[in-house]
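Sequence design from tokenized structure. All designs in this work follow the same two-part layout: the structure record, then the generated sequence. An example of the structure record is given first.
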């Protein structure tokens, strides 16, 4: 008995409607996978293939980074031609995700005080470090968010000058930076303090405020401003004669 070739139309439509109704940071790995698969398959159960792909690769990001046609063909329902198409599409998406400063601009005003929920969504289930930036106007509304870099579990190098460039490009009054500690613990390292001080100084030279640096882990969120560590950084930059702890070996 042959299956109706249009039997998946309803599911395809529901996936597209869901994708158009949620915020970009609310896309989960299954939804991302199915949207991509719909670009490759016209009449196939994309849900089952998506589940198989995520079972194989773990996360959408790992799949986009590591998938090759030979391995994709091992998944039931993926042939040689569709494996090549899917691999090309995944590589293109991975390239886009790694472009520093890729914009996620809220459709409605989101304020500094709303950042906590956004942060948990940005870093949810990540097993690698991600560094993001929020640019705010003089009303504390977020006018731009972007990813500055993604790296390994405990190592991430960012372009600090890019923080300043993005803030100036979007006429920002202040900036909030954030990154995660995927291995646990939210206390800042000496390197975290050093990077914060360097970014503060660069922004200060442009009359832009570094409002906060937030560190996210499964144990909670650390705020440089709430802990008064930011005040200490500002004081030491304003008073360079004071010995600076993060310059010590």
């Amino acid at each position: 008995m042959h299956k109706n070739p249009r039997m998946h139309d309803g599911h395809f439509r529901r996936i597209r409607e869901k994708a158009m109704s949620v915020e970009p940071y609310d896309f989960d790995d299954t939804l991302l996978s199915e949207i991509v698969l719909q670009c490759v398959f016209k009449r196939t159960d994309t849900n089952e293939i998506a589940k198989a792909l995520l079972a194989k690769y773990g996360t959408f990001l790992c799949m986009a980074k590591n998938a090759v046609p030979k391995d994709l063909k091992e998944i039931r329902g993926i042939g040689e031609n569709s494996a090549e198409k899917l691999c090309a599409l995944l590589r293109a998406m991975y390239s886009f995700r790694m472009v520093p400063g890729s914009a996620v601009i809220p459709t409605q005003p989101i304020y500094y005080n709303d950042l906590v929920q956004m942060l948990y969504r940005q870093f949810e289930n990540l097993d690698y470090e991600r560094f993001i930036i929020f640019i705010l106007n003089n009303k504390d509304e977020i006018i731009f968010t972007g990813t500055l870099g993604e790296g390994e579990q405990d190592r991430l190098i960012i372009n600090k000058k890019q923080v300043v460039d993005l803030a100036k490009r979007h006429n920002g009054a202040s900036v909030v930076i954030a990154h995660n500690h995927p291995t646990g613990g939210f206390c800042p390292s000496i390197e975290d303090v050093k990077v914060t001080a360097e970014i503060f100084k660069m922004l200060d030279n442009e009359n832009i405020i570094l409002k906060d640096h937030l560190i996210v882990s499964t144990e909670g969120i650390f705020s440089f401003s709430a802990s008064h560590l930011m005040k200490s950084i500002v004081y030491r930059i304003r008073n360079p004669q004071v010995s600076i702890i993060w310059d010590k070996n």
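DSSP finds ten helices and six strands in the chain. We note this feature because it recurs in several other targets discussed in the main text.
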